[in-house]
Amino acid sequence: MNLDQADPVELAALREAFDVDDGGESALGWEAVHAFEAEHGIVLPEPYRTFVAEMTDGSHSGPPEYGLMPVAELPDDWGDDGRERDLSRPFPLTEAWVWEEDPDPSEDIDDVLDQVYDHGSIVLGTDGCAMNWHLVVTGPHRGHVWLISDVGALPFGARFGFTTADPGFAGWVRHWAANEPWHDAV
């Protein structure tokens, strides 16, 4: 998983999976990507960075179930608690965590949950019912895709034991394109 250099093979697979053939009209463009990164103090991981700059910034076709969100948007069911999302602060998790079943929740669980939802990730989209896919943009899991719901968070990829797919944005999309329901195995 190369987060700094786009792999032409991965980019071709992304183009094919999303069937993007509009001459780049739905893409954000490099100037807008650089402005977004500067505004948030981040650099988007590859191949997602090139994908939104050159192919498309969002798609009505999946993944996830309700389509891919534009880079700066949140799902309709996200809520409006007034908290500011800070993409430059590290995403706090490095392993799956089901806080609803945590036998020994720490006293500061609300602070950690705020970080899980609001630090270091962009929302790729939703499968509904508050099950949102995130792409980590800062922290030790930069470049990894996570499923974050109202009860827990889970990293995507074979390395984490929850699927046979490769990790990262390209692996997540390839898995979806192959129509393998990985979440049935969790």
- Shape type: globular
Tally of structural domains: 1
Point out poorly predicted stretches.
Answer: 180-186
Number of strands: 4
Strand content: 5-15%
Separate helix tally: 5
Spatial order of the strands forming the largest sheet: 1-2-3-4
Alpha carbon gap, first and last residue: 23 Å
**H/E element sequence:** HHHHEEEEH
Q: Give the class from helix and strand content and strand pairing.
A: alpha+beta
Rg, Cα atoms, Å:
16 Å
What is the residue-averaged pLDDT? 86
Largest sheet: 4 strands, antiparallel
Query: In percent, how helical is the residue content?
Result: 25-40%
Which oligomeric state applies?
single chain
Domain Knr4/Smi1-like: 31-148
Protein name: SMI1/KNR4 family protein
Organism: Streptomyces kebangsaanensis
Pfam families: SMI1_KNR4
What does this structure look like?
This protein is α+β, with helices and mostly antiparallel strands. The protein has one domain (8-181). Helix content is 27%, strand content 10%. The protein has 5 helices and 4 strands; from the N terminus they run ααααββββα. The protein has helices at residues 8-18, 30-40, 48-55, 109-118, 168-177, and strands at residues 121-126, 132-136, 145-148, 153-155. A 4-stranded antiparallel sheet has the order 1-2-3-4. Strand 3 (145-148) and strand 4 (153-155) form a beta hairpin. Helix 1 (8-18) packs across helix 5 and helix 2 packs across helix 3 (48-55). The two termini are 23 Å apart. The model is unreliable at 180-186 (pLDDT under 50). It comes from Streptomyces kebangsaanensis. Residues 31-148 form the Knr4/Smi1-like domain. It holds the Pfam family SMI1_KNR4. This is SMI1/KNR4 family protein.
